[in-house]
Write a structure and sequence with these properties.
Helix content: 55-70%
Distance between the termini: 49 Å
Strand content: 5-15%
Largest sheet: 2 strands, antiparallel
CATH class of the largest domain: Mainly Alpha
Low-confidence stretches: 138-163
CATH topology of the largest domain: Serine Threonine Protein Phosphatase 5, Tetratricopeptide repeat
Structural class: mainly alpha
CATH superfamily of the largest domain: Tetratricopeptide repeat domain
Number of helices: 10
Mean pLDDT: 75
Length: 286
């Protein structure tokens, strides 16, 4: 077998257990139509979706590494040829699969994933679903008349969302936590720019909560943690000035907490941590 190296064999071996190489795109010369001349679930899914008179839900399952992601790309190609608009989202990029997942985290992560997929797939979109959701959760919403088509049913409704003060605060805090979770997933994958964007949005929400609720110890602590995450992301991208700005701002917040609550040891430790981060930054710059 000329031209086959040990590295090729290793990649092939890793692919068999679901790791290593990525799913094959449509038209890839390495794709082997193993379902040819056999019952093809992808063709069945294509027909089910194409013939559906309204929205439909379909499940494709299989063992890890048996080609589901590759076949979904084939399904996307087939449906696109029939003038369907198809978004294919890999939720592994947005969810930490090693930790328990709340339904609220999943929905918010899904909104982010779909929003980014829409932006990648279609040009000329000025406002994504994610931006709309953030705007919705941070303000009162009033829609005088809504007419939506759900399958063949039409729904006319008047919507006025006026959650209680506590509910609004909880919604925004949950959103900031979900943003941090998505940022941590991006960070683990080395996508520091995207992680920084998520941490920035989380910080913005926490700043608004501090403005609204006052400088509570919990609010200031959460804000300082956001600044640590933003500084770490900037440091990883060698954006020294940004990292220094975030660390100094976070240290200033912790200094206020330390002065107001000198008996709480955790604030002293957080202040020392910021000092260490700033020293690390100076070392990196050298």
């Amino acid at each position: 077998m000329t031209g086959i190296t040990e590295e090729h064999l290793r990649d092939f071996h890793n692919t068999l257990d679901g790791s290593g190489l990525q799913a094959l795109e449509q038209g890839d010369p390495y794709y082997i139509p193993v379902l040819k001349n056999r019952q093809d679930p992808i063709l069945e899914l294509q027909q089910s979706i194409h013939w559906a008179s309204s929205e439909s839900v379909n499940l494709l399952s299989g063992f890890r590494g048996n080609g589901k992601s590759t076949e979904l790309r084939r399904l996307k190609h087939l449906l696109t040829q029939q003038d369907h608009y198809v978004l294919l989202v890999d939720m592994n990029q947005y969810i930490n699969m090693t930790k328990p997942l709340d339904i609220s985290d999943f929905i918010l992560s899904l909104v982010i994933a779909v929003s980014e997929a829409v932006k990648d797939e279609f040009d000329g979109l000025n406002e994504g679903y994610w931006e709309r959701l953030c705007q919705f959760l941070s303000s009162d919403v009033e829609i005088s008349s809504v007419t939506a088509t759900l399958g063949f049913a039409k729904l006319g409704a008047r919507l006025r969302a006026e959650p209680s003060f506590k509910q609004q605060v909880q919604q925004q805090w949950d959103l900031s936590v979900s943003l941090d979770n998505v940022g941590e997933v991006a960070q683990a994958q080395g996508e520091w720019s995207r992680a920084g964007e998520m941490y920035q949005q989380s910080r913005d929400i926490r700043e608004k909560l501090v403005e609204r609720l006052g400088e509570t110890p919990e609010g200031l602590r959460d804000l300082s943690i956001s600044l640590i995450k933003m500084g770490d992301a900037a440091l990883a991208m060698e954006e020294w000035n940004k990292a220094e700005k975030y660390y100094i701002e976070g240290r200033s917040i912790v200094e206020r907490l330390k002065q107001r609550f000198p008996e709480i040891k955790n604030y002293v430790e957080m202040h020392e941590h910021f000092q260490q981060l700033l020293q690390k930054l100076e070392d990196e710059k050298k």
